[in-house]
Every structure is written in C-alpha cells, then in structure tokens.
Amino acid sequence: MDLKKYIRDVPDFPKEGIIFKDITTLIGNGDAFKYAVDKMIEPFKEESIDRIIGIESRGFLFGGAMAYIIGTGVNIARKPGKLPWKTIKEEYSLEYGTNALEIHIDAVKEGEKILIVDDLLATGGTALAVAKLVERLGGSVVGISFLVELTFLNGRKKLEGYKVHSVIEY
Ligand code: AMP
Questions:
Q1: Which of 26, 51, 126, 146 is the most buried (most CB within 10 A)?
Q2: Can you tell me the distance from the alpha carbon of 1 to that of 31, in angstroms, rounded to the nearest whole number?
Q3: Quick one: pLDDT at residue 95?
Q4: What is the SS3 assignment for 11?
Q5: For the segment 59-85, what is each residue's pLDDT rounded down to a tens digit?
Q6: Candidates 95, 96, 156: which one to mutate for ligand 1, based on the most atoms within 8 Å of Cβ?
C-alpha cells in the first residue's frame, strides 16, 4: 500500500518554512491505519517488550494500537503539566522551537524493556528526550518506531545506538 498518498502536506504550519506532514488523513482511513500500525510493529514482533511508550499526541494513537497487537501495556510521555501524578522531565529542541516532555515515575519500572512510538522523526530531539526519560527510570529502550522519517533532518544520527524503524521516508 502506498501510504504516502494518505499523508497531507500542509505548508508553513505551525511556522513559515515548515511542511507539516498531516497524518490525520491517514488515520482516518481504516485500511491505511491498519497497514501503518502493522508495519510499525513488524520489526519488533519477535523482541521481548514489556511496555510501549507513546509520545504526545499522535504517538498515543499508534502506540495504543501497537500495544494491543503485541499484548503489552502502553504508557504516555506528555507535555509539561498534563500528567496528574509525580513526573520526571526532559527538555529538548524541536524542528520548530523548544519543548519538554514528562513521564510518570511509575510509567517504567527498573529493568523493563520499552518500545518508544511516535508518528514522525524529524531532528530526533523528541524521541531522544523520551529515551532519556525511560533510561532515567531504569528501563532499556528496545527500539523506537515511527510512521514517517524526514531523512534530510538526520534524526537517525541523533538516535545512534538505538534500533530506529520508520515506515515512510521523505
Ligand atoms: P523532532 O524532535 O524534531 O524529531 O520532532 C518530532 C516531533 O515533532 C514529532 O512528535 C512530530 O509529530 C513533530 N513534527 C516535527 N516536524 C514535523 C513535521 N514536519 N510534520 C509533522 N510533525 C512534525
């Protein structure tokens, strides 16, 4: 299936010069969503995984569906101030600005094997911040799975040492 035809390019969002890859058109299609989720989990199906961490917000959609397939739990990394309980925080730089992500301190337990999931890899700062959160809580990162990778931004280099998987490259 050619998933690219389900992704909408939105120029100059959220800032001038950024071409936003809008995946709402893909997740809104049942066949495309199912195919995308199957492809995102494929290389990790034989791995031992204790939990998936989905990154706010589109990572929640894919992460939840992938966790259902492999029968694990799922947890969430969120923007500051959104999680109700005790959290730890990592700051990072984004293709368009800086941000921070938080995770509940019991989202990952010592020794757990974690798969991190997001919709898109740009510069890699977001996923690296989540990998650091997982490791600060004593977990190990089995891999990081994305639907889309913007290869020209070299995010993979920032994530060197991790098993990085993406389904669609631009
Ligand atoms: P980065 O930390 O640079 O790898 O940015 C990845 C995060 O920002 C992901 O959560 C993406 O959803 C979002 N993002 C960055 N650039 C884009 C883009 N061009 N289109 C859609 N989402 C993007």
A1: 146
A2: 9
A3: 59
A4: strand
A5: 999 999 999 999 999 999 999 999 999
A6: 95
- Rounded distance from Cα 144 to ligand 1 centre (Å): 14
Ligand 1 within 6 A of CB of 75: no
54 lines ligand 1 (CB under 6 A): no
pLDDT digits (tens, 9 = 90+) for 119-168: 999 999 999 999 999 999 999 999 999 999 999 999 999 999 999 999 99
**Could you give phi then psi for residue 12, rounded to 5 degrees?**
60, 35
Structure tokens at 31: 């066949």
For the chain, which residues make up each domain, given as ranges? 40-169
pLDDT of residue 15: 87
The verdict on the CB of residue 51 being under 6 Å from ligand 1 is: no
Query: What is the distance of C-alpha 47 from the center of its chain?
Result: 18
